[in-house]
Structures are given as C-alpha cells and as structure tokens.
Amino acid sequence: MSVTLYIPGDAAARALGADKVAAAIAATAQQQGIKINIVRNGSRGLFWLEPLVEVATAQGRIAYGPVTVADVPKLFSADFLHGGKHALCLGDIATHPYLAKQQRVSLRRVGIVDPRSLAEYLAHGGGKGLAAARKLKSAAIVQQVTDSGLRGRGGAAFPTGIKWKTVLDTASDQKYIVCNADEGDSGTFSDRMLMEGDPYCLIEGMAIAGLAVGATRGYIYVRSEYPHAITALESALANAGDWLGDFRIEVRKGAGSYVCGEETAMLESIEGKRGIVRSKPPLPAVSGLFGQPTVINNVITFASVPDILAQGAAFYSELGVGRSRGTLPFQLAGNIKFGGLVEVPFGSTLRELLYDYGGGSRSGRPLRAVQVGGPLGAYLPESQFDTVLDYEAFSAIGAALGHGGIVAFDDTVDMAKQARYAMQFCANESCGKCTPCRIGSTRGVEVIDRIRAGHKEQIPLLRSLCDTMTHGSMCAMGGMTPYPVLSALEHFGEDFE
Q1: In the beta sheet, which residues pair with residue 373?
Q2: Cα separation of 392 and 352, whole Å?
Q3: pLDDT tens across 359-392, in order?
Q4: What integer pLDDT is reported at residue 450 of this predicted model?
Q5: Whether the predicted pLDDT of 155 surpasses 90
Q6: How far apart are alpha carbons 264 and 254 in whole angstroms?
Q7: Residue 405's closest CA among 184, 106, 110?
Q8: CATH no., domain 320-410
Q9: Does residue 86 sit in helix, strand or coil?
Q10: 3-100 has which fold?
Q11: Sign of dihedral through CA atoms 476, 482, 483, 484?
Q12: Do residues 22 and 35 lie in contact, with contact meaning Cβ atoms separated by under 8 Å?
C-alpha cells in the first residue's frame, strides 16, 4: 500500500532545499522497496520549519521539519512513514499553535491540497462559490460582494462591490477582469503562496467576477520573478477544462517594473506598451484595458470571493472590525523569529502578530521599528505596536496596512539609512511621468545625505519636498514615498543627527 507524503513545491521551501529533500526521500524509498506518493503542495507558511514534510496517517498529517537531506536516512529508520517518533516530529500539523490560532479563509486550502488537481480542489470545498454565482443574476452577485464589506487587498482598500457595480453599469460589448499579481512589495508573499498552493481559488474568484459584470476575458499579470506561480497558474488553467464555461483567462508575465503594480501602468504593460501611469479620469472601471470597462483586483481580493458566494455575505461581514471586514493574510518578515504567513480577522494588534505569532526578533534584541505595507509604508515605533489592525486605525497614525507585509527591525537599525533607502527606491523605480516623483525622489536622496552628514538645517527642506511629493505625484509611487521618510524623522529623529 502506497504512503502519501506532502513536500512543498513553494518557492520559499524550494529555496531552503525542498526539492533535494523530496528527491532523497523518493530515492531512499525506492532502494527500500517502499511505495510512496509525493505530492508537491503549497507551503503552510511556517517558513522556519521548511522544508516541512507531512505524512498522511490515520492520526492526521504528521509533520517533520525542518528536514535536510542528511535527516532522511534517520527518518526512515524511525518509521516516519507511519508517524514514527523523531526529534523533528511536530505531530499533527493542523494542531500546531501557529496554525490553530489563525482563521484562514482565502488561504485555507494552501498547504493542504495538490495545487495541480481540480478534483482535489473541488473535494475541499472549491467550486461552490462559482456554482452559487451561476444561479444568480449579475446584480445579485455584485450585491453579495458589496454586503460582505470586502475591500481591495492590494493596498488601496477600495470597496470591491462599488468597483464591480461601476463596471456592471457601464455599457460595453467587451469587458475584462484583470488580476494584479505583480506582488513587488518587500516582505510580501501571500499572493505568491496562493498562486503556487491553490491557483484554482484565484481562477474561481475571477470567473465569479466575470459573471458579476458580464466579462468573458480575464488576465493575470504576474511578476517575472514568480516562475513557479506562473507554472502553477498555467497548469491549473490547462486542467480546468469546461469548469470555467466560456470565461477565458490568460497569464501575462511582467518584466520586473515595480511601478507596474500600479493598476494603470499594469494595463499599459498588458497592452504591450511601456509601463507608465495613466492620468485619471477615466477610471479603469469605465475605460481600462484596451479602453473597455475593467475590473482590477489583486490575488487575495479575488481569492476571498468564492467563500463569500458559497457561504453568504453575512459569513464574511461578521469577521473583522469597523469598516475592515473579513480577514487579511499578514506576512511576517525581516528580523523576526518565526517568519511566515498569518491569516486572521481584522481587529488583532500589531503587537500580537509580532510576539504571539512572530516570537519577537530573531536576534533576541528588542524590536525597535516595524515597516507595514511594503517599501512605501511608514515605520512604526514600539509605542505604536498596540495599533489595531484596521485600515482606518492605521490611517489615523499616518500609516497604511497595504498588502499586509510586515518587516521587523531590532534596535541596531539605522533609521536615517532606512529613510534614504525609501527615497532611493522611489528614484530607481519611478516611471518618470510626473516631476514630483521623478525629480523629487532624486533630490530627496541628496537632501537626506546632507542631513546625515550633519546639516540638520536641511530637515525643513526635506519635509517640504515630501509635502510636494505627497500632493503632487500622479500615483502612490511618489505619493507614498514620504510615509517612511516622515515617520523615520518623527519617531527616530536621533538617527538623523
């Protein structure tokens, strides 16, 4: 009788040696005449335990990790294929505290299913949302999404239902659904994990959006740095067969431009043009891809939709706080002991994520600052760690939740250097269309260098420059670059002396 093992094919697990571990286990099993079936699942997001090997047993999926090639012979000697005791044994992985405390919705199948198998996706609850949507009129689908309180998970947090209704109400013979999978923020990886570990969930969400607004064509714009995600998506689409009906999705690969994460620059890139920001209006919902009404959402937004349709808007809206409804996958990175993915409803605090899940700093030193929301997010000091994870709560302190990326720094960090990095990042990645972003970021680097050299009289100039970038830039690239700079000045001013 064959034993089934789960070894992640996730990019992070592969980087930590998962492919070599899988090959070693397969070779050893063959040598010993043992029949096994290795499934390359997605990662569950416990990155400090990767490569994580799970064995399907009558007692559940017994996990071992982190496993190296050198550990394989001893695992076989310990009869790990039947859940045998070993120093690396973690028991039933579903009961692990890091997972048991979470409430996964959009990523609940990641790490559990075979991402290549449509049958397995359907067997684990997938497809119910699409089936429910096919029984509703377009306006009723949009109303469900609106009532759920779902807001865009890409950073802007715009109400998804309002965007979809605009596209529905705009007359056109051709409409499009576009998924922005250009996940370029530092410390973010939830989009990648879902595409690699549960691609059918994204595909189903896009198909539901197509029914909601009357679109039959979709595009997934994936950054070129995600080759495994691209392979997983293309494989899933090839295996989808008639499941999607007449809705067709094409995967488009980006060329590495950060600014193409901005929705209009992304549309330009999909159309084969240089990826630069468009002027608004018109909004993409009215005139988007190829000049047609277009729904644009990111991966996690679309991945949240199937459960909303399957379980009802009330199920989703009951999660969260205030105007922030549902859950958000938070990604812990940087100087953190237990880096990984944590999906919880809005309403927890930053401190809970950093310590209850993250375990504090990896170095063992005090955490001094945390950047939330990618390279354009504000740096938050320890005094703000009790801020509730809520869009409005973060906005009130001059910060943004963004895509849920959290990068931690201990007390050895130079925050003036981090502020300079933010300006330099903008200078490197600006599309160059507007002057405040193109020129302002370059001048900003120069001013910060002068301040760090001892010219504190330049600080008012830096603040004035940030004000110009905030209010004069065409998009968030230049408009949000002042967030990390000003927050560093405000909370860590001693580093600029």
Answers
A1: none
A2: 18
A3: 999 999 999 999 999 889 999 999 999 999 999 9
A4: 95
A5: no
A6: 14
A7: 184
A8: 3.10.20.600
A9: coil
A10: Glutaredoxin (3.40.30)
A11: positive
A12: no
**Domain spanning 118-317: CATH 3.40.50.11540:** yes
pLDDT score at 30: 96
380: three-class secondary structure by DSSP: strand
CA 211, CA 482: separation in Å to the nearest integer? 40
**Local structure of 5: helix, strand or coil:** strand
- The CA angle 345-346-350, to the nearest 5 degrees, is 110
Whether residue 429 is predicted with pLDDT greater than 90 in this model: the reply is no
Secondary structure element (H or E) that encloses residue 295, with its range: strand 294-298
pTM of the entire predicted model:
0.95
pLDDT band, residue 172 (cuts 50/70/90): very high
152: helix, coil or strand? coil
Residue 83 has pLDDT above 90, yes or no: yes
The structure tokens 């005094």 sit at: 383
The whole-angstrom separation of Cα 315 and Cα 329 is: 18
Domain spans of the chain, in order of start = 3-100, 118-317, 320-410, 415-496
d(CA 207, CA 141): 12
Q: What is the pLDDT of residues 223-236, one digit of tens each?
A: 999 999 999 999 99
Select from 148, 480, 144 the least CA-distant residue to 324: 148
